[in-house]
Amino acid sequence: MIETIKAHIEEVKAFQTDTKEQLEAFRIKYLGSKGLLKDFFAEFKNVPNEQKKEFGQVINELKTSAEERVKAIQDALENKEEAKGIYGDTTRPGEAMNIGSRHPISIVKNQMIDIFSTIGFNVSEGPEIEDDWHNFTALNLPEYHPARDMQDTFFIQTNPDVLLRTHTSSVQVRYMENNKPPIRTISPGRVFRNEAVSSRSHCIFHQVEGLYIDKDVSFADLKQTLLYFTKEMFGKSKIRLRPSYFPFTEPSAEIDIYWGLKTETDYRITKGTGWLEIGGCGMVDPNVLKNCGINPDEHTGFAFGMGVERIAMLLYQIGDIRMFYENDVRFLEQFKSSI
Ligand code: DAH
C-alpha cells in the first residue's frame, strides 16, 4: 500500500497540463470528495500499528503534493491568460505614463534662485549636519549667548558640537571662510528646529540665505535688493523693514511684505494684518566678518535669510505648512502646471 501511495506522489509531482479541464480532473481524482486521498485516509485504520507512522507520513505528503501542484498549475494558467490580455491585443490604447511634478518648495526655491542670479548672486550650499562654530559661534553667538534660545536646536546624539543646522546662515560663514570679497551668494537649504508642529510652523523647513560683501556696501543696497526681489517674486512693491535683533547683523531688521487681504488664506497666513514676515536681514556684524577672515575696516556687507515655505504658502494659497511634507500626491499633482 505504501509503495502504491509513493508511486502516486511521483505521478502527482510530474503532472503537467495546460488546460483547466484536465487540471480539474486531476484535482477531483486526488482531492475530490470521492478522491483517492479520501480512500487512503479511510484505509488508515486497517493499517498495522507499526506501519501507521510511515503510512500517515506518505498520505500527508501525497495530500500536500497534490495541493501544491494544483495551485502551481492554476497560477501558471492564470498568468498566461493575463499575459494574453495585456500583449494579445495590439490595437488596445497604450497606458498613459504618469508624469511627476516638482514639489512646490522646489518650484519657489528655483524661482528665488533665478531672480537673485539675474543680479549677480551665485548659489552656494553647505551641510545640514553642522558644527557649533558655523551654526553659532562664528555668527557672534558664543556659548551661553541667550540668543541661542531663539532657535531650539536638535543635537546629534549627546555631542553638543554636532547639530542639525538651525538656519542657512551657517553657509555664509563657510562661504566667507573660503572666498574673498566681492561676495554675492545665496544659499538655499533645509533647516531644522526643535519646535512644536502646527499649521504655521514645522520642525523642518527651508530658507534662502543671501550674502553680499564688498567695499562700501550700505543699508540702501540691502533695501534695493529686497525691493527688487519682492517685485519680481510677487509683483508687489510694498515692503517694510522692522527694526529687530540678530546677533550676526547690526543693524538688523525683519522683512515684511504687504500682501493684502483678498482671501481667507491671506487672513490666516498674515494673521489678519495683510503683512507677512518673510525673513530677517541686516548689515553683517564686523565681528562675524573678523571670525571669517574678512577685514571689517575694508569691507562691509549685508545678509538676509528668508523662509521658503512662507512664500510658497502665500503664492499658492496653502493654509497649512504640514501639507508640504505629507507627500500626498493629490496635493503634489496640483503643481504640474507651475514648473
Ligand atoms: N538666520 C535667521 C533666522 O533663521 C535669519 C536671518 C536674519 C538671516 C538676518 C540673515 C540675517 O542672514 O542677516 O532666523
UniProtKB/TrEMBL annotation:
Example GO biological process: phenylalanyl-tRNA aminoacylation
Major location category of this protein = cytoplasm
Q: Which InterPro entries match?
A: aa-tRNA-synth_II (IPR006195), aa-tRNA-synth_II/BPL/LPL (IPR045864), Phe-tRNA-synth_IIc_asu (IPR004529), Phe-tRNA_ligase_II_N (IPR004188), Phe_tRNA_ligase_alpha1_bac (IPR022911), Phenylalanyl-tRNA_Synthase (IPR002319), tRNA-bd_arm (IPR010978)
Residues reported to bind Mg(2+): E250
User: Where can this protein be found?
Assistant: Cytoplasm
Residues annotated as transmembrane: none
**Reactions catalysed, as given in the entry:** tRNA(Phe) + L-phenylalanine + ATP = L-phenylalanyl-tRNA(Phe) + AMP + diphosphate + H(+)
How does the cofactor bind to this protein, according to its record? Answer: Binds 2 magnesium ions per tetramer.
MF annotations from Gene Ontology: ATP binding; magnesium ion binding; phenylalanine-tRNA ligase activity; tRNA binding
Q: Give its E.C. classification number.
A: 6.1.1.20
Q: Which Pfam families match?
A: Phe_tRNA-synt_N, tRNA-synt_2d
Entry GO terms, CC: cytoplasm
What are the record keywords, sorted?
Aminoacyl-tRNA synthetase, ATP-binding, Cytoplasm, Ligase, Magnesium, Metal-binding, Nucleotide-binding, Protein biosynthesis
List, for all copies, the residue spans of the domain called Aminoacyl-transfer RNA synthetases class-II family profile.
114-326
Tell me the CDD domains matching this sequence: PheRS_alpha_core
For the keyword Isomerase, the answer is no
Cofactor list: Mg(2+)
Subunit composition and interactions: Tetramer of two alpha and two beta subunits.
Q: Which family does it belong to?
A: Belongs to the class-II aminoacyl-tRNA synthetase family. Phe-tRNA synthetase alpha subunit type 1 subfamily.
**Protein name per Swiss-Prot or TrEMBL:** Phenylalanine--tRNA ligase alpha subunit
